[in-house]
Amino acid sequence: MRICLVSNLYPPFVQGGAEIYVGRLARALAENHQVVVITTEPGARVAFSREVSPEGIVVYRLAPLNIAHLTNLAHHPLPQAAYRAIDLYHPQVAALMSRILARERPNIVHVHNWIGLSLAAIMASVNARASGRTPVAMTIHDYSLCCVYADLHHPDGHGCAPDLPCRIMTPLNRHLTESIGLAICASSFGLDVLVERGFFRRADHQILPYVIDPLRSLPPAGRLTQGTSKPTFDVLFMGRLQQHKGPQVLPGQDPRQPPARRSPRATRASSSTASSRARRARRSWMGRIAWCCRRSGPSCSAAAWKRSSRGSRWSQRPPRRAG
User: Could you tell me how far CA 215 lies from the centroid of its own chain?
Assistant: First the structure.
């Protein structure tokens, strides 16, 4: 089978987990299928580039004309609005994707994150094939279909009402996705949010959780036998250290203990720049958090802190930020 994966970002251009997911999916599918990836890259170019990976994955990279590339787009309302307005329907993307699909003739198109590739242009090029409509599946990684912030929260943390831009965008995207035959999501909650807003009413639904098997990944000495108790209630948060992802709730209460005995310990693995608000919260959480942060930018204060056995002091001082 020839499978076409569509993703706005693809390694080596990585901003979040979705493009890592797509990269691993492409390599896994390539073991038994022919895989084509359509994605973007920084710059502005009329044509597309084509490359073939060692696994045989054919990667087409587009550089649509816009005010910036997604990887260096300023996080301010004005440039974000201008970027999204141009991306509403991008004729360059529609023309290039039509050429790629006519050339590769995939049996199925699997859409992932699409901002920067114009959802309207993607669906128009898929549905305009002379040989007939290609089956389309979509994996939902966020709430971009119904929320301009993609997470149902404003940057200041309060929930989306939704606001006027979301109310305008939702019916448009609902119309664009009517021909999608399979909707995939990592959680029932995420899919239900979109179904409640009228998305994917005619599509088949599939829940594919992101699976982490800790027992398989840990060395034998680190495994706990059944029935073994721990002195702490540990929570692992993995993701960008951003408020809308909810890491601030981790130092909350241990639901297993009475209020007087609650003292949770949380471990966070972060791969993003921490906001000033998150840094202030970080200082208030000292003593209860073990940080394992991968430095991904000059302003990311990476630290690997280990909590002491007494629980009231750090066994080593947090490293100073460079610069």
Answer: 25
